[in-house]
Amino acid sequence: MTATVIDGKAFAATVREKVAGHVARLSEEHGIVPGLAVVLVGEDPASEVYVRSKGKQTVAAGMKSVERKLAADTSESKLLEVVAELNADPTIHGILVQLPLPPHIDAEAVINAIDPAKDVDGFHILNVGRLGTGQKAMVPCTPLGCLMMLRDHHGDLSGLDAVVIGRSNIVGKPMAQLLLGESCTVTIAHSRTKDLPEVVRRADIVVAAVGRPEMVPGDWIKPGATVIDVGINRVEDRLVGDVDYDSCAAQAGAITPVPGGVGPMTIACLLANTVTACCRAHGLAEPEGLTA
Ligand code: NDP
Q1: Residue 192 CB less than 6 A away from ligand 1
Q2: Which of these, 142, 116, 118, 143, lies nearest to 129 by C-alpha position?
Q3: What is the reported pTM?
Q4: Pocket test for ligand 1, best of 98, 163, 199, 230 (most atoms within 8 A of CB)
Q5: Distance 190 CA to ligand 1 centre (A)
Q6: What residues are paired with 205 via a beta bridge?
Q7: Is the confidence at residue 1, as pLDDT, over 80?
Q8: Is 54 a catalytic residue?
């Protein structure tokens, strides 16, 4: 079997187009421009690349982009002040504090200081609780992107066996909640899981979010299963995922490549979340197809 390659790059472009369409409509019909603020503390080179790319794509979609760059030794109280300013700014609908934060700052306290209605990363405890109880939430961008690709490929996900490898708060757990919301039978695997190969072999859908290069080999994959590879691992000079692409593609029905799979969907979903937050803030209908 040769797997269908799920082209995240192309899919993300369609999401960005939809976002731009909604942004144009918001401006024409209501005179509203959605605004996204990204706060970066310190000079982590990878974070700087992400922040630049987020800013560029925000502007390309017709939205307002604000970047707040703070020195690495910025105090937690100063950062909280910046968050409070952005919370109070009516032209800003989404706030993202780029992680990781320097060790002297309590990241949890900062995230929970963001107005939950502007928490486009979906990491605020209220949004986590809303997602877990099936209420309208801001949903973390990476799992939202995975869900969009799965819905697009499968249509109805109801009753499928899904195995999520990884239980982080930013990917694994919200991914599992979203799949449960789609009525999948969900298993969350992690470093203590007994007989991981057997667990993964049951899955119609495998989402790998581990951070270990090419850890999942093809013989763990049920023939015809869909494999979503969240992993981004730098090995020598190339990027590889958490699944061994060639052997998994030989077994799977569909698979996301790395790069060009989940990665591009993450920023596209950040833009989608910003438009959603803007519509909710103004009591307007939410954009269709861009939410969980
Ligand atoms: P974390 O390190 O926070 O979590 C990794 C998870 O994998 C943990 O739950 C851990 O288990 C589990 N794990 C580790 N080793 C094993 C093992 N041998 N068998 C089974 N499970 C294991 O990572 P993240 O969730 O933040 O990220 C995961 C990957 O996704 C990374 O490669 C990251 O770069 C990538 N990523 C990609 C994004 C994108 O936009 N495409 C966005 C975010 C992340 P335990 O809890 O027991 O320790």
Answers
A1: yes
A2: 116
A3: 0.98
A4: 230
A5: 9
A6: 162, 226
A7: no
A8: yes
